[in-house]
């Protein structure tokens, strides 16, 4: 079996640089073929490893530092986020927030300036409070229209979320990355909604590609996971040291499940993107539904930029119903769409996002994650639920 370290295997971690997405996700991160061995080895359950001699020369020493199961997954994700790039390093974490924290907290110091989206994931709000409590100046700007440009002077780090969650706005990552680098700032992109098959932030100029693997990357709603991919070895080492220091490590079973799930990523995301577009188009036909957003809609405000930098437009659709009561009746009437938070799974889910607080959205705002069910069945279910909700 190939020995692996630092999120890249000894062969460079790339299976067929010119292969298509479907081929790469099936083969990514697998070890060299070995007679009678499984193609994807099972999870390695170990708190420690036999350790003769100098630990610095050991591929694995202690379970908080590294695990062969993590390494296979890290190699696979690196091949997807930066295909053909042998310098890319991926670090996997216990959750998406652990990955976000590793970037924001490992690189910022008192007096630094960080630019965050004002319309991003709602846990960025307590993260902002934490940073400010440490003496970091935090500026915010909405995602749409590249509004972050006006906040970059003196910044140490720009955090981009594109498409944004839950509003689905998009910004020009390359333009913002170039502007940030001119001012000496690093750039991190939350790639959760797009996945590495829909968008490659490192190719667009970002220093970090960050994501919650809990969502579409694994796609079955049974794993909490996050990751950070970097090209710069110093940045990657800083992220990896943060994981070791705070212990934000994934379980080997979770890492193995994630790697197994990658094989269907192309199939799932292609079907989900097509279904989401069908759902968005159906929702726009309804008079009680307003502000339908999906980057794949040709007249969506985000579409022109999304079409330039995204290869598929994702599974999430957002829209607004008349009020809180209408939205709750709609969600209760759905037969094929579960009322649940999170997104990216094979089973469709939706929620009234305002129930959490922290998102600047109307009370009737719904975020829907479209799964892999038959599109016609989903559309029929949504239409029937809207009819029922309208009857009160």
Describe the structure.
The protein has 392 residues and is α/β, with parallel strands linked by helices. It folds into 2 domains: 4-262, Type I PLP-dependent aspartate aminotransferase-like (Major domain) (Aspartate Aminotransferase, domain 2), CATH 3.40.640; 265-390, Aspartate Aminotransferase, domain 1 (Alpha-Beta Complex), CATH 3.90.1150.10. It is 33% helix and 15% strand. The chain has helices spanning 21-27, 68-81, 96-107, 124-133, 173-182, 233-246, 252-262, 265-283, 303-309, 324-333, 375-390, and strands at residues 4-5, 8-9, 89-93, 113-117, 137-141, 157-161, 186-190, 208-212, 226-230, 290-293, 316-320, 338-339, 349-352, 365-369. A 7-stranded mixed β-sheet has the order 3-9-8-7-6-4-5, sandwiched between helices. It has a 5-stranded mixed β-sheet with strand order 10-11-14-13-12, with helices on one face. A two-stranded antiparallel ribbon has the order 1-2. The longest helix has 19 residues, at 265-283. The termini are far apart. It comes from Streptomyces chitinivorans.
List the helices and strands and how they pair.
Elements: E1 4-5, E2 8-9, H1 21-27, H2 68-81, E3 89-93, H3 96-107, E4 113-117, H4 124-133, E5 137-141, E6 157-161, H5 173-182, E7 186-190, E8 208-212, E9 226-230, H6 233-246, H7 252-262, H8 265-283, E10 290-293, H9 303-309, E11 316-320, H10 324-333, E12 338-339, E13 349-352, E14 365-369, H11 375-390
Parallel strand pairs: 4-5, 4-6, 6-7, 7-8, 12-13
Antiparallel strand pairs: 1-2, 3-9, 8-9, 10-11, 11-14, 13-14
Helix pairs in contact: 2-7, 3-6, 8-11, 10-11
